[in-house]
Amino acid sequence: MKSLVALFLFIPLSLFAEENRQTLLGASLDGMPVEIHGFMSQGYLQTTHNNYFPTSKEGSFDFSDVGLNFNKVFGKNLRAGAQLFTRNYGRLGDFQAKFDWFLLDYRMQDSFGFRAGRIKIPYGLYNETNDVDTARVSIFLPQSIYPSDQRDYLLAQNGFELYGYVDLESLGALNYNIYRGTLHIDLPATTAGLPYQIGTSDVPYVQGGRIIWETPIDGLRLAETYQNIRWDADIYIPALTTTLTSTVLVAMSVSSIEYTTPDYQLTTEYAKWWADIESTNPTIVVPATSAQERYYGMGTYRLNEWLHPGIYYSETYINDKLKDNPKDFVKDGAAFVRIDLTPNWLVKFEWHEIHGTYGLNPSQNDGKTTAAMDKKWQMFMAKTTVYF
Of 325, 340, 312, whose CA–CA distance to 373 is shortest? Predict the structure, then answer.
């Protein structure tokens, strides 16, 4: 029901001309006590050989999202904001409306500010704009660094953040973010077909930071990100009638380089994800340590005001020591184009050539294991977005 309210509120506002929409909202956006913005997207996704979404080999329209965000400025230093968001993303989302971020933001000066609430995580260069389709050319950001199926627990954290901008004069400038909080993880409603069931689950903390150096070279910026997470869960194993407590410690680092001109943008990011697994019954869940390796290179070009093509190549390895078996990696080459039909309406098309099956769901692929799935497959996407 909440998702329908968001949808039907957004559609009339987005279809009215600017002057009529301002009248509906009570005043021009600049003069409003509360700024309201929103977007609505509908996509289509089809794959060959393997299902990325349920039934995606036949083509799937389960690729939609709607968002409304609200911002209110109090004087010069204090701001409050929130976004109501709902989506249908294959098996995820199912149009359950929720506030995916909300915050109070107090900036004492350029070099120091404070945020509290559910705050977008400063991870890599683009995580904070991951749900803003208008902020990029591609439909998907490179999945090695910004996996879309993990959006619910990579997008935002509940806690606080310190941030600031420091002018280094001839050396450029630094942007920094430091945060600590927790994550809200929505577990699957059913674990049918799995050999375990997850009971009580808790994230005692997620913490980290990012620093971006805006170099003296115009358009060049470098960034370093670090984050670590602790996840505790009670796991019941029906076959053994045993319950155990498992702790997963995850650390992530990302190194980023971006070079931008008025006509093109070049970006590369490299990440390592480390995981340590412990449990109260090490004979069942054996303690283990692993490291994932993830990276991509991307380029986009502006042919004119309304046509923006681009490409990227991305690799993900479940273990940096296991790089030979396609079930343990994904190598993804993508070509895409963005067409701005009007200042408030865009269309995108995207093609992927993929080698590897890591991350695919056996339950959506006739029970096949990732080792038994087709190693090379393709994916086509189309998406249109209206925003205001």
Answer: 325
Total of domains in the chain: 1
CB 104 within 8 A of CB 80: yes
pLDDT in tens, 280-332: 888 777 777 889 999 999 999 999 999 999 999 999 999 998 899 999 999 99
* DSSP symbol at 150: G
Over residues 11-25, the pLDDT tens digits come to 333 333 344 444 334
Parent domain of 189: 2-387
Q: Give the strand pairing for 78-89 and 35-47.
A: unpaired
Q: d(Cα 231, Cα 185) in Å, to the nearest integer?
A: 10
Identify the bridge partners of residue 250 per DSSP, sorted by sequence position: 229, 275
Rounded Cα–Cα distance for residues 225 and 162 (Å): 15
Distances, alpha carbon 27 to alpha carbons 19, 30, 32, 35, in Å: 9, 8, 6, 10
287-313 burial: b if 16+ Cβ within 10 Å, else e = eeeeebbbbbbbbbebeeeeebbbbbb
Please state, in angstroms and rounded to a whole number, the distance separating the CA atoms of residues 235 and 196: 7
- Helices and strands per DSSP (H, E), number in the chain: 3, 16
- Give me the CATH number covering residue 189: 2.40.160.10
